From TrEMBL:
Residues 2-41 form the Ribbon-helix-helix protein CopG domain. This is Putative nickel-responsive regulator. The lineage of its organism: Bacteria, Pseudomonadati, Pseudomonadota, Betaproteobacteria, Rhodocyclales. Its cofactor is Ni(2+). HAMAP family: NikR. The keyword Manganese does not apply.
């Protein structure tokens, strides 16, 4: 691990320490590492480095909107290669929330998310996207049954 030192004005240091306490960080170092990861990921996304990602797409929709539930399900089925899982919950008599876990090529995931959020009746959509490196492991998982993704599966390792 590499160490570096920074100097902060007293007021900035106090504000930073208050933020650390508010968010429950164990140390200044962990808070700085977390901020650096977030900023580096944001820079990768702005550059459009492509590659692959894992993502969480969340949105609220009115289930009374004409055929919206069927359209959303249809879009997910059309992109079954990107969709890992979807959680659906009822908020009230009219509104539902869904959170979908996605993985795959970054641009394909973005297009999928945009197509969901653009549907009439979908509100409050947000995509949280994390760049990953694909690893093609050469290992056994140490269990008796075959891996559900077959011998050619990938591991998605978040970039640091």
């Amino acid at each position: 691990m590499e160490r570096f030192t920074i100097s902060l004005e007293d007021e900035l240091a106090r504000d930073f320490d208050a933020l650390i306490a508010e968010r429950g960080y164990a140390s200044r170092s962990e808070a700085v590492r977390d901020m650096l990861r977030r900023e580096l990921e944001a820079a990768r996304q702005r550059r459009g480095d492509g590659g692959h990602c894992i993502a969480s797409l969340s949105y609220v929709f009115n289930h009374h909107e004409r055929d919206l539930g069927e359209r959303l399900t249809g879009i997910q089925h059309d992109h079954h290669d990107l969709t890992v899982s979807t959680l659906h919950a009822h908020l009230d008599h009219d509104n539902c929330i869904e959170s979908t876990i996605l993985r795959g090529p970054t641009e394909a995931v973005r297009r999928f998310a945009d197509s969901i959020m653009a549907q009439s009746g979908v509100r409050h959509g947000q995509l949280n996207l994390i760049s990953v490196d694909l690893a093609h492991p050469q290992h056994a998982h140490g269990h008796d049954h075959s891996h559900p993704h077959g011998p050619g599966h990938f591991h998605y390792r978040p970039r640091r």
